[in-house]
Design goal:
The chain is α/β, with parallel strands linked by helices. The chain has helices at about 35-45, 60-65, 80-90, 115-125, 170-180, 190-195, 220-234; strands at about 5-10, 25-30, 30, 50-55, 70-75, 100-105, 130-135, 140-145, 150, 160-170, 205. The strands form three sheets. A seven-stranded mixed β-sheet has the order 5-4-1-6-10-7-11, sandwiched between helices. It has a two-stranded antiparallel ribbon with strand order 2-3. The protein has a two-stranded antiparallel sheet with strand order 8-9. Helix 5 (about 170-180) crosses helix 6. The longest helix is centred in the last third of the chain and has 16 residues, at about 220-234. The structure holds cytidine-5'-triphosphate and ligand LQXTBERG.
């Protein structure tokens, strides 16, 4: 059977949140943010195992959060950037075959739901890369150089990426290998690495959800608290 691994990326320190504890360990609805996505992947019949990538110095705390979930294969330490944390996960998955499916998910997005996971896994039946995205509701512009509008892309064509971002393991391995040979490489997500270094690989886009928000700033915790209460009642 082809394995399917969910990688929960929790290696960040939450600078924009400004709390002493990394935001993935802050509680919403009485449980750590990190617990929610682990719970969803653990309950999903299409996921065989979960790899948690935690911020340095907080691994023991993440192990405590992960302990109740039988699908968690390991909690490893991440790197200084999201990219370095993805690379740590790829190293930990070195024994998995190239056709394995891997979903990279931000621990900072606690309310990923089974339907989103279903859509990612369905897309990986026919493709090698999938992104979860939502339409934009603002008019989005490119600014600069200087505080001047440089471009106004048509809103209908724009989407906001969420996570998971899913790949056949061989594809994401190859993209990061090529990126590793590029001195100017930086990325804020994993699909961006495939798009840049393997432009011939189509990245399918599937629907996300407004509830699949990323807890980034203190105000996001207010929304997350509300969503956690809704989830507890459902
Ligand atoms: N070195 C890093 C940085 C980020 N992430 C993870 O990538 C996801 C998205 O990142 P972001 O929201 O930017 O989290 P932080 O890096 O923690 O936040 P900030 O940028 O405000 O410091 C988060 O789940 C975060 O834990 C990671 O695994 N390793
Ligand atoms: C991967 C991501 O969540 C997609 O929206 C986003 O790019 C993460 O960016 P961040 O700078 O790490 O918050």
């Amino acid at each position: 059977m082809t394995p399917t691994v969910a990688v929960v990326l929790a290696g960040g320190t939450g600078q924009r949140m400004g709390s002493t504890l990394p935001k993935q360990l802050l509680e919403v609805g009485g449980r750590p943010v990190l617990a929610y996505s682990i719970e969803t992947f653990d309950a999903h019949p299409g996921i065989n195992s979960i790899l948690v990538v935690m911020a340095a110095g907080h691994r023991a705390a993440a192990e405590r959060v992960a302990a109740p979930y039988g699908s968690v294969r390991a909690v490893i330490e991440g790197g200084a950037t999201r990219t370095a944390s993805t690379l740590a996960a790829l190293a930990a998955l070195a024994g998995e075959p190239d056709d394995a499916r891997v979903l990279f998910h931000d621990a900072a997005r606690p309310f990923v739901d089974p339907g989103i996971v279903d859509r990612c896994l369905a897309a990986l039946e026919t493709g090698a890369a999938v992104a979860v995205a939502q339409p934009v509701s603002d008019t989005v512009v490119a600014v600069g150089p200087g505080p001047v509008v440089a471009a106004m892309p048509p809103r209908e064509s724009l989407r906001r990426f969420q996570t998971p971002q899913g790949f056949r393991l061989g594809t994401i391995r190859r993209a990061y290998e090529l990126a590793g040979a590029d001195a100017g490489f930086t990325a804020t997500d994993d699909c961006g690495v495939v798009h840049r270094y393997l432009p011939e690989v189509p990245i399918q886009v599937v629907e996300g959800g407004e509830h699949n928000l990323k807890v980034t700033h203190p105000l996001d915790l207010v929304v997350a608290e509300h969503l956690a209460r809704e989830r507890a009642q459902s």
